[in-house]
Design goal:
- The chain is mostly helical.
- Helix content is about 70%, strand content about 0%.
- It contains eight helices and no strands.
- The termini are far apart.
């Protein structure tokens, strides 16, 4: 009898919990955590790339030390990218998010310049360490592209949940402190990885115009 009375007292609580779960009360925190997890993966891949840069610069410098401007630009861009401090809260801070994205896009751009240098230095192009680093960079850039895409998809889903019925009810009450996540913008540097296909010859120069034209 005592057990039956306990069950009877708990029944309304369980019914309410089941009803709330069915109404999506857990959807917002679940999607928030998924967005933060996707963001952490973006950070991991950018850090992986940053870790490759010193060895890459050192290898290129051994064969093309005269390319000082590009080497310095890459080193400075890496320093700028790694100095921007981010955490889970960054995804709801547009200014901090854009600063981080811009720094990473800048590094992508100068890495593209560094990568084409090898066309002018056959010994560098055939160096086994450089070949290995090139492969790692290409793979990392691909993973960055995928992680940014996955983050955007997860964040977009979360943002939609915050704005649509019935979850907007919870967003305005239980989770009123939740903010929409910032998305990566499809800038030119973000849409494509640095050129790391070293088997492609540089484009031929346009022919000079004929005299009198």
């Amino acid at each position: 009898m005592r057990m039956l009375k306990t069950i009877a007292r708990l029944a309304p609580v369980l019914a309410i919990a089941t009803l709330l779960a069915g109404c999506g009360i857990n959807t917002i925190p679940t999607q928030d955590e998924a967005t933060k997890t996707a963001w952490a993966e973006v950070q991991n891949q950018y850090q992986r790339r940053a870790d490759l840069v010193p060895n890459l610069v050192a290898t290129v410098k051994g064969y093309a030390a005269q390319e000082k401007d590009v080497l310095v630009a890459v080193t400075q861009a890496r320093a700028s990218a790694t100095q921007v401090k981010v955490d889970a809260s960054t995804i709801t801070d547009p200014a901090a998010f854009e600063k981080y994205a811009a720094a990473q896009d800048q590094l992508s751009g100068v890495l593209g310049r560094l990568m084409v240098i090898q066309e002018q230095y056959p010994d560098l192009k055939s160096n086994q360490n450089f070949i290995a680093l090139q492969s790692q960079l290409e793979g990392t850039e691909n993973r960055i592209t995928i992680s940014r895409r996955d983050y955007n998809e997860t964040a977009q889903k979360y943002n939609t949940t915050l704005r649509t019925f019935p979850s907007i009810i919870w967003a305005k009450t239980m989770y009123s402190g939740q903010k929409p996540a910032v998305l990566f913008q499809a800038t030119a540097s973000a849409q494509s990885a640095p050129t790391v296909n070293f088997d492609t010859a540089p484009p031929a120069s346009a022919p000079a115009p004929a005299p009198g034209q």
